């Protein structure tokens, strides 16, 4: 006879309670609760360093359909604090599956809950904003849980990038997945790029390698002097978690690199580049997270369906006189990209490497290649 599922509680900062079943590690999960609108890609989401400090809710109702495998990961380990779904697929099936989602969650000590009304939860986050939350599989004292959730530190003002960055530099040689052979290993390159690891996703690195780029990933605190001594053709500022404002060491390094070398910023890298130019950022009410966000390219007029994961944004007005706005979010008209051609830099708020998500924006890596070539040919 199957054992009865263990009860789990999800408590929000506003006092709301959701009770369901535990499907992961036994314990507590604490962080900012957010939602992601992707239908697939849960394994990439779980391993995206940009989710450090957050509990992720999937809005699609059935999760775990195709199981998990060691290839569809975006970092060396998961970074989410907790995971929330409506319903777990009972019979995951896929030719690449090596374990179930439950096995993956338990192996990596991720506290997770299923069986709650995720539609109600998502509407609550949209109305009240992203907020502190906790999941517990060990404590049924709801009053105690409500007291505990109010003591969770806010991500505002926290340097979360320092928690996810690499401890030492490393080379990356793996290109984009190519069926049926898998991830190719490149040996010959035309360009050399230093990637500042602020929480970098592996598919960014793979995208560079597939464009014949020799990639060196460096810690977030690497000085601009050290970077220039390496004589790269360009610098990429990666995605990453949380609030950009407290990452002052990165802002100062970027400020000193501007104009000296081509720069491409993605997500957190985009926000830090704006701050280095003298712009401002602000916290969005509930953020942009999913694989279906429409963005308009203001230079071509094209509409791109994009993959996004961020809770902060660049203040459009603060860029006036500092950089040219190039991309606009069509859902809420927030800044999604800017450029400064005479300084050989551009950035986007969304994820051109996708994984998960559509591939509409992968042309940006080719734009980066052209910018480096133009800089070299000045």
Structural account:
With 378 residues, the chain is α/β, with parallel strands linked by helices. Helices cover 22% and strands 30% of the residues. It is built from ten helices and 19 strands. It has helices spanning 42-46, 101-107, 118-128, 142-149, 161-164, 202-210, 224-229, 248-257, 268-276, 363-376, and strands at residues 7-12, 17-22, 28-36, 54-58, 62-63, 82-84, 87-88, 111-114, 131-136, 170-172, 191-197, 213-219, 234-237, 263-266, 281-297, 303-314, 324-329, 335-340, 345-348. It has a ten-stranded mixed sheet with strand order 10-12-11-13-14-19-18-17-15-16, with helices on both faces. It has a seven-stranded mixed beta barrel with strand order 1-2-8-6-4-3-9. Strands 5-7 form a two-stranded parallel sheet. Helix 6 (202-210) links the parallel strand 11 (191-197) and strand 12 (213-219). Helix 8 packs across helix 9 (268-276). The chain is globular.
Short description:
With 378 residues, this protein is of the alpha/beta class. The chain has helices at residues 42-46, 101-107, 118-128, 142-149, 161-164, 202-210, 224-229, 248-257, 268-276, 363-376; strands at residues 7-12, 17-22, 28-36, 54-58, 62-63, 82-84, 87-88, 111-114, 131-136, 170-172, 191-197, 213-219, 234-237, 263-266, 281-297, 303-314, 324-329, 335-340, 345-348. It is built from ten helices and 19 strands.
């Amino acid at each position: 006879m199957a054992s009865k599922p263990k009860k789990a509680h999800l408590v929000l900062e506003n006092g709301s309670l959701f009770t369901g079943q535990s499907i992961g590690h036994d314990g507590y999960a604490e962080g900012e609760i957010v939602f992601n609108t992707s239908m697939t890609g849960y394994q990439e989401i779980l391993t995206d360093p940009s989710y450090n400090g957050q509990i992720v809710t999937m809005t699609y109702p059935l999760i775990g359909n195709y199981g998990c495998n060691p290839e569809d990961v975006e970092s060396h380990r998961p970074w989410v604090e907790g995971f929330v779904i409506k319903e777990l697929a009972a019979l995951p099936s896929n030719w690449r599956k090596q374990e179930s989602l439950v096995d993956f969650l338990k192996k990596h000590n991720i506290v997770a809950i299923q069986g709650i009304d995720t539609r109600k939860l998502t509407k609550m986050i949209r109305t009240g904003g992203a907020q502190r939350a906790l999941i517990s599989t060990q404590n049924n004292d709801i009053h105690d849980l409500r007291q505990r959730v109010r003591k969770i530190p806010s991500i505002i003002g926290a340097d979360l990038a320092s928690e996810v960055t690499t401890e030492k530099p490393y080379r990356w040689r793996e290109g984009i997945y190519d069926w049926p052979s898998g991830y190719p290993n490149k040996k010959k390159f035309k360009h050399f790029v230093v990637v500042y690891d602020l929480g970098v996703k592996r598919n960014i690195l793979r995208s560079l390698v597939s464009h014949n780029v020799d990639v060196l990933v460096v810690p977030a605190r690497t000085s601009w002097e050290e970077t220039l001594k390496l004589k790269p053709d360009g610098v990429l500022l990666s995605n990453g978690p949380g609030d950009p404002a407290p990452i002052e060491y990165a802002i100062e390094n970027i400020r000193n690199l501007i104009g000296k070398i081509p720069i491409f910023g993605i997500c957190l890298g985009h926000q830090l580049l704006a701050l280095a130019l003298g712009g401002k950022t602000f916290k969005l009410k509930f953020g942009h997270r999913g694989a279906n966000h429409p963005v308009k390219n203001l230079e071509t007029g094209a509409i791109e369906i994009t993959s996004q994961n961020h809770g902060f944004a660049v203040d459009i007005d603060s860029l006036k006189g500092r950089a040219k706005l190039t991309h606009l979010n069509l859902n809420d008209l927030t800044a999604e990209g800017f450029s400064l051609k005479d300084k050989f830099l551009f950035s986007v708020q969304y994820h051109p490497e996708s994984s998960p998500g559509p591939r509409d924006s992968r042309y940006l890596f080719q734009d980066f290649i052209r910018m480096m070539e133009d800089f070299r040919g000045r």
